[in-house]
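Lab notebook page, bench 4
Experiment: in silico fold of construct C2
Operator: M.H.
Input chain length: 131 residues
Purpose: comparison with the prior construct
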Amino acid sequence: MIEEGKALFLQIAEQIEDSILDGSLEEESKAPSTNELAAFFRINPATAAKGVAMLTDKGVLYKRRGIGMFVAAGARELLLRERHSAFAEHYIDPLLAEARTLGLSTDDLAALLRERAAAAASESTTEGNPA
């Protein structure tokens, strides 16, 4: 569960973000405490607190005094926008640059994506059904 080479507090923040995005941690619900996160991941509570603080600074979590941390209203939409932007920057922009290098038009690229998506869908349905 813990990745080598990536700061632990970032991994904690990403785990919470993933839980918000997949719906297992809903908006306005109580988030895991720093101590719960530290015990689960077997890390120092200060490290877990740093990940939680990062999400608080972004407006994803907020504190209810004496009760704990909660997922902010609009947190899922905020995270989706952030991840969409990162996806475009890390994957789409380099893809478009390589397509230009290869002389592929937008239509060529769209056709290639549809072809690959269909092949991947076909593979995933045949994996579950042995011949």
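Observations: The mean pLDDT is 93. Strands lie at 61-64, 68-71.
Next step: discuss at group meeting.
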